[in-house]
């Protein structure tokens, strides 16, 4: 009731929720009370959460931030949200997001932009901007997000949260509306690393319904939180601290590095020589996969359908023309072009080769260090509307986050400090399945 009242009071301005599930929340809260009384409660029983609006939730609208799915009520529950239901968590609602998770500022949503609670003129980041703003404004205790090229880590950085993108395959993608299937991964967004550990515990694990889900034992994510950082080897990629990095952010990260040193960490320079190729490779691969994934939205089986189609082709064309926003159409066109005969070798195949090189850069770096540290974004949160006409400058801000998705390695974003009265995010990347270590370092820093 406390959180529902806060949503009622504050979300008219913030716009972080697309749907508030008041009745469901109160019903689940009563069930949680019963579990507390009969002794079957776990650590998440009764904890009020919000879910990014691309997790299918049975009987609840699942819009993916798009007019295309504005009328879509999912007939089944995603694995991630089902696991939270099984743990006894409460669902407060579904959060705003960039349309089909394409964006870095939450401005491509059909439901309008989300405001950053730290300064309401500014974007909260994206694409999980609604989840970020909702947790930062204490409209929920924690939230889920998804990260294809930084959508958990970048908005966490802009709103002072801790957010974790797990190793690819760690969390089931079943029931999560696909953007770029080889890059998408769900994870927690919360106030602290400790909270992220509890949430990831519920989310992680093999799921036979997702063929890319990994059969790898799930450790106790809270067990190593309190380990001292003595001897931890932290790598600073030399390519990440050059031109284009905001001075206030650079300075805050500098201080954070000193604090880690004081906690016993050893700092080393490392190199990710192919990092500069990551953005072009990512936007070819992600758009190619999106163009294929989004072909299912044709106005026939579900979702938006145009009025009075004259024939089948008119139905397809107008439903997609009217149902998708500008950024989604841009990605579909780029992706279709990159996959078309004659261009496949020149773009898609090249991008896949770069992807392999980037993965190899990480494998080499992790022979020398335990974690890699960087800012989450080269620039601070910007004004709503400022970059809306310049998609490429928006794409360039993903520079620090997308390499982890291309390689499949896990990453955590956490608040490093403040610059110009705004939170500055710091990112730690680690080898495959090093989530316990990343959460440990984040917890010790906090
Ligand atoms: N900004 C990136 C994109 O638009 C990443 C988005 C995401 O991680 N979902 O593709």
From TrEMBL:
Amidase domain: residues covered: 1-439
- Give the matching InterPro entries: Amidase (IPR000120), Amidase_CS (IPR020556), Amidase_dom (IPR023631), AS_sf (IPR036928), GatA (IPR004412)
As its record notes, the protein acts as a catalyst of: L-glutamyl-tRNA(Gln) + L-glutamine + ATP + H2O = L-glutaminyl-tRNA(Gln) + L-glutamate + ADP + phosphate + H(+)
Subunit comment for this entry?
Heterotrimer of A, B and C subunits.
EC number assigned by the record: 6.3.5.7
Q: Where is the active site?
A: 52 (charge relay system), 127 (charge relay system), 151 (acyl-ester intermediate)
Q: Which residues form a coiled coil?
A: none
* Species of provenance: Halopseudomonas formosensis
Keywords in alphabetical order, please: ATP-binding, Ligase, Nucleotide-binding, Protein biosynthesis
Q: Which protein, by its recorded name, is this? A: Glutamyl-tRNA(Gln) amidotransferase subunit A
Query: Which HAMAP family does UniProt cross-reference here?
Result: GatA
Nucleotide-binding among the record's keywords?
Answer: yes
UniProt family annotation: Belongs to the amidase family. GatA subfamily.
One Pfam entry for this protein is Amidase
Gene symbol of the encoding locus: gatA
In UniProt terms, what function does this protein have? Allows the formation of correctly charged Gln-tRNA(Gln) through the transamidation of misacylated Glu-tRNA(Gln) in organisms which lack glutaminyl-tRNA synthetase. The reaction takes place in the presence of glutamine and ATP through an activated gamma-phospho-Glu-tRNA(Gln).
């Amino acid at each position: 009731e406390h959180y529902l009242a806060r949503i009622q009071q504050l979300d008219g301005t913030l716009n972080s929720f697309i749907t508030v599930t008041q009745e469901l929340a109160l019903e689940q809260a009563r069930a949680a009370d019963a579990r507390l009384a009969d002794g079957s409660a776990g650590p998440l029983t009764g904890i009020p959460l919000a879910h990014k609006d691309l997790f299918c939730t049975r009987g609840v609208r699942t819009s993916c931030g798009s007019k295309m799915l504005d009328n879509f009520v999912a007939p089944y529950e995603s694995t991630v949200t089902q696991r939270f239901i099984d743990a006894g968590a409460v669902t407060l609602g579904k959060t705003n997001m960039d349309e089909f998770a394409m964006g870095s500022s939450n401005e491509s949503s059909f439901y309008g932009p989300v405001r950053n609670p730290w300064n309401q003129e500014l974007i909260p980041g994206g694409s999980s901007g609604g989840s970020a703003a909702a947790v930062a404004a204490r409209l929920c205790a924690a939230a889920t997000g998804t990260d294809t090229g930084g959508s958990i880590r970048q908005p966490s950085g802009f709103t002072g949260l801790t957010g974790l993108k797990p190793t690819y395959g760690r969390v089931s993608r079943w029931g999560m509306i696909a953007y770029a299937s080889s890059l998408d991964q769900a994870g927690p967004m919360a106030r602290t690393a400790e909270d992220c550990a509890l949430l990831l515990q519920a989310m992680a694990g093999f799921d036979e319904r997702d063929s890319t889900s990994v059969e790898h034992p799930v450790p106790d994510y809270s067990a190593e939180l309190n380990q001292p950082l003595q001897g931890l080897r932290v790598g600073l990629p030399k390519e990440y601290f050059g031109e284009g990095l905001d001075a206030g952010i650079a300075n805050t990260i500098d201080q954070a590095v000193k604090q880690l040193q004081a906690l016993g960490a050893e700092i080393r320079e490392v190199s990710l020589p192919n990092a500069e190729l990551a953005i072009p490779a990512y936007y070819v691969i992600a758009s190619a996969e999106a163009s294929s994934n989004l072909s299912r939205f044709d106005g026939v089986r579900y979702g938006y359908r145009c009025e009075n189609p004259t024939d089948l082709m008119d139905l397809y064309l107008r439903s997609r023309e009217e149902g998708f926003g500008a950024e989604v159409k841009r990605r579909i066109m780029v992706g279709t072009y990159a996959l078309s005969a004659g261009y496949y070798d020149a773009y898609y195949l090249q991008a896949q080769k770069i992807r392999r090189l980037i993965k190899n850069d990480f494998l080499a770096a992790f022979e020398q260090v335990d974690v890699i540290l960087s800012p989450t974004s080269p620039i601070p949160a910007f004004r709503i509307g400022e970059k809306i006409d310049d998609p490429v400058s928006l794409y360039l801000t993903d520079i620090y986050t997308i390499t982890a998705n291309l390689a499949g390695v896990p990453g955590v974003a956490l608040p490093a400090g403040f610059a110009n009265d705004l939170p500055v995010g710091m990112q730690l990347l680690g080898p495959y399945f090093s989530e316990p270590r990343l959460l440990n370092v984040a917890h010790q820093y906090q």
